[in-house]
Design brief:
With 147 residues, this protein is mainly alpha-helical. It is 49% helix and 5% strand. It has 7 helices and 2 strands, in the order αααββαααα. Strand 1 (53-56) and strand 2 form a beta hairpin. GO terms for molecular function: DNA binding; DNA-binding transcription factor activity.
Length: 147
């Protein structure tokens, strides 16, 4: 399964905040990952709406985790960020979409099982698990020195 870019960047924001242990600006996170600030800002708003991050405005503002990293489950975060209803057309809530083999095809069941296994594996991890060595993580994300 491939996560969409929105989910990927959402997880990256969460990992950066967990590793830093302090408030970070959207601009700083975007520069560290080499991603558009505007794109990261939209994702940060979604993370805030989901209750995963808290945002503070102003000069000393920025993003921080809304709760401890050990309390943020990766499977739950992916479920919240990713649109899993449309994993394949026949799994969408509005039905099979006129699929000629609906009702006789075993693919739907196989895909549902695979998706459940994927998410069950992610459920085994917290955000803290993903950034065990916080210093090394932040060293890797360090901004290059200005020339």
């Amino acid at each position: 399964m491939q996560l969409n870019l929105h989910t990927d960047y959402g997880l990256r924001i969460l990992m950066a905040l967990a590793a830093s242990g302090e408030r970070m600006s959207v601009d700083s996170i975007a520069r560290r990952y080499g991603v558009s600030r505007n794109h990261m800002a939209k994702i940060a708003q979604r993370l805030q709406a989901l209750g995963l991050v808290a945002a503070t405005r102003g000069r000393a503002g920025g993003l921080e985790l809304a709760r401890p990293a050990k309390d943020i489950n990766i499977g739950a975060a992916v479920r919240a960020l990713e649109n899993l209803d449309g994993f394949v057309q026949c799994l969408k809530p509005d039905g099979p979409g006129g699929c000629a083999i609906d009702g006789v095809c075993g693919l739907k069941g196989a895909l549902v099982s695979a998706l459940e296994a994927f998410l069950a594996q992610l459920d085994r991890f917290t955000l803290a698990d993903l950034v065990r060595d916080r210093r090394k993580f932040m060293d890797r994300l360090a901004l290059p020195a200005a020339a």
